[in-house]
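Minutes, project check-in
Item: structure for the 246-residue chain
Input as provided by the requester:
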Amino acid sequence: MVEQHNTMETESKSIRFVPLENNPDVMSSLVHKLGLSSDLSWHDVYSLDDPSLLAFVPRPAHALLLVFPVSEAYEKFRMEEDSSLPDYSGFGSGEEVLWFKQTIGNACGLMGLLHAVCNGMTRDLIGKLFADEINRELTLTHLLETSSDLASAHASAAAEGNTAAPPADERVDLHFVAFVKSAENNLWELDGRRKGPLNRGKLPEGEDILGEKAIELGPKRFLKREEETAGGEMRFSILALGPSFG
């Protein structure tokens, strides 16, 4: 399934990427090109409730990617919640989480991947991507827009999918949101279309991102709201970042 989403108010009109296919192999290829250890990969999560299906996901799980269609109900909730929040201005390695504002068209898959691998237990990857620049008062948005290595890695991964990738200027409708657990045991929802990172609550120490509390405060909370307000629209998928097979 190819990543698809509508043109957002935060996206640059001049910079657009070819959408990524929502495929764990493609996602793994991209994060490995960016420097993540091949000991970690993305895996499909086939159920949030069935223990036998959850057992197929290698643990510990370090991050989740929720992929969903952008519904009117979601847009209404997003704008209402954001209306009471300040614009995020944090930067540097001292922040509890690193958040990237999305300004590149058709790059929500990339934003989700970066949010996942630059936070939580894999946070050291950010040093490999941007070295000392992360601690300068230079926005992460600017770093993403001007990184030729990032653009090259994304283009290479976008060409690896099982289906033909749409052109960069095509309007699409699926979106990616990442969930990570910080060193302070907080569950963070990270979405480049929002005003900043969203703290969704405290998690038990020692529980990974596929633990019961994380699932309830993260993807299940989101899906319950969509089911109640979007006419039962439940078309979604979830990927988990965890140890590679073999």
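Outcome recorded: Residues 1-13 have pLDDT under 50 and may be disordered.
No further action items on this chain.
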